[in-house]
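Sequence only, no structure available. Ideas?
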Amino acid sequence: MAQNTRRIAVFVSPHGFGHAARATAVMAALQALAPDPGFEVFTTVPRWFFADSLGETAFGYHECLTDLGLVQRTPFMEDIAGTIRALDDLLPFRPAVVDALAARIRQLGCRMVLCDIAPLGIAVARRAGLPAVLVENFLWDWIYQGYGDAALDRHGAYLAALFAQADYHVQATPACLPRPADLHAAPVSRAPRTAPAQIRQALAVEAGQKMLLLTLGGVRGGFPSLKALAARDDVCFVIPGASPAPDFRGNLRLLPHRSSFFHPDLMAAADAVAGKLGYSTVAELYYAGAPFAYVWRERFRESAPLGAFVSAEMAGFGIAPDAFESGAWLERLDELLSLPPRPRQEENGATQIARFMLAHWPA
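Reply:
I predicted one. Tokens follow.
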């Protein structure tokens, strides 16, 4: 990478792709607002995810377990015992790890640290003497409290103390637990970059055929029966993550997690979306406007406030995980496709956060 005068260390939670999508949206907004931003990304989210949004040479990549979140058995079921074992291994963060990362980001010339709920970044920023910007719509201590487990609460208390040490706190709409913050931002979303008509043509969506995107937010497994989808040949189903290579068969478009299609472009081209309820999906659909049949998770505390936001501000309805996986939700497919779109033109929260970070750049 070329030398940049505004270099930022970006620590990203690897729990799904949603946190990476939000952090990438902020980085892209910084690229648009400033002539010289540079990024050093610390996470275990695959490097390609950031490259697809920012370009191959716009950032340095450092594979690092910055956060755990929750261990998932399936896209809709958490493994609490596995989560506790993993947290026991990870927390508290080892001083040697924090020291080494602090030395690395100083050596790389970073002047600010951006954390999308990756608490390690805050600890590293404190050790390096750099300002930390925390971006969240929930924090892990609040999520852990929903399971009523003493071990999770113990780890949550440690993380809460770290989160409180952030120099700047940004809450992104829809926030699960609204609280005082230095900035309350609009929904944060990556922007599409290809016209919907071009995307539909590339996917071979027939004229007059509806296009429905199925998404699980980067977590593997849990898709409904392909046979049930194939029976609705009036609808073209596009399913990222359903195949190791692009596979177009009948009315199904099975794609790998990384394909030639930029995910926000698929969102913007779809007539409707169905899948896991997560922040980045909600934020991208908030601007794209397509109706959303969202799958809630009974015990995951983020589901209720995100679902309430969809009901109040967007078009869509909730479906149960078992109905999604069995294909029973297809009984409501016509209802979903009949909902009118509700696109938004307001300023993206990513731009608001980028402007805030530049305004608070250290002297």
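The CA atoms of residues 287 and 346 lie 8 Å apart.
Hope that gets you unstuck.
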